[in-house]
Amino acid sequence: MVTRRHSRTGAVFVAAGLIVGAAGVTGCSGGGPDDDSLPTDPVDLLHRAAPTLVRAGSSKARTEMEMATGGTRVTIHGEGVYDYGRQLGRLEVLLPHDAVGTGEHRPITELLAPGALFMKNRGAGVPADKWVRVDTGTLSDGNLVTGGATDPFAAVEVLRGTRTARYVGETEVDGARVRHYRGTADLTTASLAASDGNKAPLRAAAEGFATARVPFDAYLDDEGRIRKVRHRFSFVNGGGQGTVAVASTTLLYDFGVPVSVRLPRAEDIYAGKIAQE
Predict the structure, then answer these.
(1) Cα–Cα distances in Å, from 162 out to 183, 185, 186, 200?
(2) Which helix (H) or strand (E) holds 178?
(3) φ, ψ for residue 158, nearest 5 deg
(4) Burial (CB count <10 Å: 0-12, 13-18, 19+), residue 256
(5) Which CATH number fits the domain that encloses residue 166?
(6) Three-state DSSP state, 185
(7) How far apart are CA 23 and CA 138, in angstroms?
(8) Where do runs of H (alpha helix) occur along the chain?
(9) Which of 43, 73, 160, 173 has its CA at a distance of 20 to 30 angstroms from the CA of residue 29?
(10) Cβ contact 177:188 at 8 Å
C-alpha cells in the first residue's frame, strides 16, 4: 500500500506529474434536508445538492481539469460513472499529448472510494497490471486535483461549504434546462458538513490550498440535481514560481444508470516505490 503525504506544492500534482511524465445571499427556507420541495434561497439550495445526488442514486460523469502555471496551460479529460449512495466511481482519465507532440497516452483508470483513490496505468515504474492506492486524507488537496479529475461527489460536497451565492439565470447544459448559480464556498465549513468519507480530504484541502475559499459556478436542474459544477482552486507553487491556477469542471448526466465498481484486491496493489516525475 502506498500512503505518502504530499507536500502542499507536491500535490501540483500527481496530475501535474502525470502530465510532465507523459510529456451573497444567506438564510434558510425551512424543511429538513430530505424535504422534496426545493428551497428558494441559493445558499440553502446548494447546501442540499449533495443529499439530492444521493437520492438520485447514480450518473455518468465527464470531467475536465485545466491547469495554468508559468505561461503554460494543460487540460486533462475524464469520463465514467459514479454511485452516490456507495460513493464509488470509475473514471478513465486521458492525458494531453507530450509537449513535444508525440503520440497519445493510454488512459489512466481511476477508482474512487471513500478516503481512497486507486490508479491503474499510472506509469512512474508501476507494473501495468498493478494499482496504486492513495489515501486521499493525506493529500494536501484532498484529491480535488491530484488524480487529474475531481471526485464527482467530493466536487458537490464542496458546495456544503457555500457561504455566498446568487442566481445568475437560466441556461442549458447538454440539452437540459438548468438554473445557474455563482458563489463562493469555504472548504473548512464543507469538511464539517461533509459525509464521513470526504471529511478528512476536504479538511486537508482547506489547509493545503492557497486559500480555503473556492469560487464556483453551479448548474442545477428542476429536481435540484447538479448537472455541471466548475470550481477554481489555487496552490502556492514552490521555487518562487507564483500561484498555480486550477479550474475543475464536472458534468453529470444519465442519472440512475447501473454502476459496477470493484475495488482491487490487496495483492493487486503496488507496494513498491513510485518514481518521482
Answers:
(1) 7, 4, 6, 18
(2) strand 176-186
(3) -55, -35
(4) exposed
(5) 2.50.20.20
(6) strand
(7) 26
(8) 14-22, 42-47, 49-56, 152-157, 187-193, 196-208
(9) 173
(10) no
| Three-state secondary-structure class, residue 128 | coil
Residue 3 located in a structural domain: no
One-letter identity of residue 268 = D
Whether 1 maps to a domain, the answer reads no
The distance of Cα 150 from the centroid of its chain, to the nearest Å, equals 2
Q: What is the pLDDT of residues 134-162, one digit of tens each?
A: 999 988 898 899 889 999 999 999 999 99
Looking at residue 117, its amino acid is L
Q: Which domain holds residue 19?
A: 14-268
Contact 186, 49 (CB under 8 A): no
- Count structural domains, the chain: 1
Q: Which three cell numbers stand for residue 59?
A: 450518473
- Best CA proximity match to 146, nearest among 249, 1, 8: 8
| Bond prior to 233 in cis (omega within 30° of 0) | no
pLDDT tens across 73-106, in order?
889 999 999 999 999 999 999 987 654 344 556 7
For residue 31, give the C-alpha cell: 424543511
The span from the CA of 127 to the CA of 150, in Å, is 25
Considering the domain boundaries, does residue 152 fall inside one?
yes
Region at 125 (left for phi over 0; alpha for psi -120 to 50; beta for the rest): left
d(CA 156, CA 56): 13
In a domain, 6, yes or no: no
Rounded to the nearest 10 degrees, how much is the dihedral formed by the CA atoms of 110, 113, 116, 118? Answer: -20
Please tell me whether residue 100 adopts helix, strand or coil conformation: coil
